[in-house]
Design brief:
Elements (H helix, E strand, L loop, with lengths): L9 H69 L4 H30 L8 H17 L1
Helix pairs in contact: 1-2, 1-3
Length: 138
């Protein structure tokens, strides 16, 4: 028995192929848009975490350093340390602790923004499958 594809002329086959390819690319474009939107949402979470880390680092420098340095210096003075030494040591201790906390938040945000997290994996795989289908059909 003869299949309907064998009865079609070359122009009809080419027209069908062009229509299929055009529909395929429209679908791939829609997939790419959806995946890019998803990746951008993920990236925005990273940007928000990064921004929060920066804001907290600035606030920490302004508020925590002043309050914690004075509190630690007062404690060290009660332990027998001289006032200038207690002030200097407490400044270093508090500054290092706040810097480590801020570094943790900033590195978390930067990790979310790495290029690997923003790749369009599904779109790339789908395009490769589609290219293989087109090669097989031609």
């Amino acid at each position: 028995m003869v299949s309907p594809l064998e009865n079609r002329s070359l122009p009809e086959l080419v027209t069908g192929l062009v229509g299929d390819i055009s529909g395929l690319f429209r679908k791939e474009l829609n997939l790419a848009k959806a995946e890019a939107s998803e990746k951008m949402s993920h990236a925005l979470v990273g940007v928000e975490a990064f921004a929060a880390g920066i804001v907290l680092a600035i606030c920490a420098v302004g508020v925590l350093l002043a309050a914690l340095v004075k509190g630690l210096a007062a404690f060290l003075i009660t332990q027998g340390m001289t006032e200038p030494s207690a002030g200097a040591l407490s400044s270093v201790v508090v500054g290092v602790a706040v810097a480590l906390f801020a570094w943790g938040l900033i590195s978390r945000g930067l990790t979310a923004l790495k290029g690997e997290n923003l790749k369009l994996d599904r779109t790339s795989a789908s395009l490769q499958r589609d290219a293989q289908v087109i090669k097989d059909r031609t």
